[in-house]
Design a protein that fits this description.
By secondary structure, this protein is an alpha/beta fold. It folds into two domains: about 60 residues, no CATH class; about 150 residues, Rossmann fold. The protein has eight helices and eight strands. A six-stranded mixed β-sheet has the order 5-4-6-3-2-7, with helices on both faces. It has a two-stranded parallel ribbon with strand order 1-8. Strand 4, helix 4 and strand 5 form a beta-alpha-beta unit. Helix 3 crosses helix 4. The longest helix has 17 residues. It is globular, with a radius of gyration of 17 Å.
Length: about 220
């Protein structure tokens, strides 16, 4: 990372023999977050039956606040746009649009309000359950007022839920996953999972190159 900081390298990829915190912590200590960003986040590109989704945050923020969730959603939407995807953001919870009032679901609803205030042009809605978010017929039948149908950005309420979801999609659902892609860091630093294979290393290296070119 110091080589990147000194201009001797354009990007850094690490983590094959380290845990996430051992890579992410020094990255934030050296580079902090990007200008205008308060919290970094991690996203996975998840490809299922030719459908492309972005899962976030499965890497960095363990228990995000409503403000954190809003920023995570915006970072993921920007990533989607740079991948030529039209962002449709679902803020996930165990509740659908107030069906189960609880501080945890209210936090997600507050995050939706914050995103809309900052980016009124962005299609975002919630709180909603994961199956509702990705099933247009279900949301049309039960929640036709929703501004988002067939979401492609899934913002999970905490790291635990996001991490469990993408790992199950990969191992049981046969999904292709690319990531984690670090968002909001002040330099092109990206992290591997311990024990990643050659294909995963190549994918993250490609992400780091794109980031170094200023396209992420």
């Amino acid at each position: 990372m110091l080589m990147v900081q000194q201009g001797d390298a354009d990007a850094c990829v690490s983590g094959l023999t380290y845990e996430y915190p051992e890579v992410i912590r020094p990255a934030l200590q050296v580079f902090h977050t990007r200008s205008g960003v308060h919290k970094a986040a991690g996203a996975y590109i998840v490809i299922v039956k030719d459908n492309v989704y972005i899962f976030t945050d499965a890497t960095v923020n363990i228990d995000p606040s409503a403000e954190d969730l809003a920023e995570i959603a915006l970072l993921a939407a920007d990533l989607a746009a740079k991948l030529n995807l039209t962002p449709r953001v679902a803020m996930l919870s165990f509740s659908n649009f107030g069906s189960a009032p609880h501080p945890l679901s209210l936090k997600v609803r507050r995050a939706v309000e914050l995103v809309r205030a900052r980016r009124p042009d962005l299609a975002v809605d919630g709180e909603m359950q994961a199956d509702v978010a990705v099933t247009p017929e279900l949301i049309e039948a039960r929640y036709p007022f929703s501004k988002v149908k067939n979401a492609n950005i899934l913002v999970f309420p905490d790291l635990e839920a996001a991490n469990v979801a993408y790992k199950l999609m990969r191992r049981l659902g046969g999904a292709q996953t690319i990531g984690p892609i670090l968002l909001g860091v002040g330099a092109p630093v990206h992290v591997l999972q311990a024990g990643d294979g050659v294909d995963e290393i190549v994918s993250i290296a490609a992400v780091a190159v794109i980031d170094a070119q200023g396209q992420l």
